[in-house]
Amino acid sequence: MERSDRSNPDFGLTAEDYRRHRAGFPPELVTRLAGHGVEASGRDVLDVGTGTGSLARLMALAGGRVTGLDPAAPLLEQARQLDAEAGVGVEYRVGTAEATGLPDGAFDVVTAGQCWHWFDAPRAAAEVRRLLRPGGHVVIAHFDWLPLPGNVVAATEDLILAHNPDWSMAGGTGLHPRWLTDLATAGFRDIETFSFDLEVPYRPEDWVGRIRASAGVGASLPEEGVRAFSDELTAVLRDRFPGDPLRVPHRTWAVTARAPLA
After folding, report:
1. Which residues form a coiled coil (predicted)?
2. Which residues, including other chains, have CB under 8 Å from residue 87's CB and lie 6 or more apart?
3. What distances in angstroms separate CA 252 from CA 134, 152, 215, 223, 240, one per listed residue?
């Protein structure tokens, strides 16, 4: 199978790992969003860059009428399987955040979970504004692992860089202030942010699978490189981080904003 250019990862290549091993957004995110005035119940919601539907599914479970959009059809197939297991229905479409093909003013809420950095931000923000009804909400959310000195995330990131020196996402803090500028430039108002931290338990084999499903590994390395990386990470976990489960620190962060009323 042809692999993606390392600067343009293709998550469709790692769709099964993505579904099985990537922890989805915590349900508390929806509760926090409601506290910021972003309700899902009874609303028309579009989730762009939906992937396997993690955020779309939460909004549907909260009572939203949800459409999920992603350019990778294999991810959407995995999303449908997860929806069936969760007992919810989301309408999925293949498309991009910059040119959705959806009608003007069709949504009360547009969300983007763990994906804004892949978009052409000015075009995506303009498209979101076009899609929202007056006063509608946009949400950009992240659920990021946290590399701390000596922890399993830092060791994992070091190994990703050893296999893929072009990977540019190491050392993150889980905070994304540039997205606020993107939204303000596009004319959104009432911009607010919030964050909260939690630990996610991973069995060692699931952590290896989760990292395979990342941009720096399964979505960009050749197949033999993915296998070599997986073997080395398995050895690192066995020798340096023998706990089961691993407790991996994550930060949930979101920015909310409103479209103008007129």
Report:
1. none
2. none
3. 27, 18, 19, 31, 27
CA gap 83, 93 in Å, rounded = 14
Cβ atoms of residues 68 and 56 within 8 Å: yes
Side chain identity at 248, as an amino acid letter? V
The pTM of the full predicted model, rounded to 2 decimals, is 0.89
Residue spans of the domains in the chain: they are 11-145+171-200+250-258
Q: Which CATH number fits domain 11-145+171-200+250-258: 1.10.150.290, 3.40.50.150, 3.90.1150.10, 3.90.1170.50?
A: 3.40.50.150
Per-residue pLDDT of the chain (262 residues; tens, 9 = 90+): 233 333 456 554 454 554 555 558 999 999 999 999 999 999 999 999 999 999 999 999 999 999 999 999 999 999 999 999 999 999 999 999 999 999 999 999 999 999 999 999 999 999 999 999 999 999 999 999 999 999 999 999 999 999 999 999 999 999 999 999 999 999 999 999 999 999 999 999 999 999 998 888 977 889 999 999 999 999 999 999 998 999 999 999 999 999 999 7
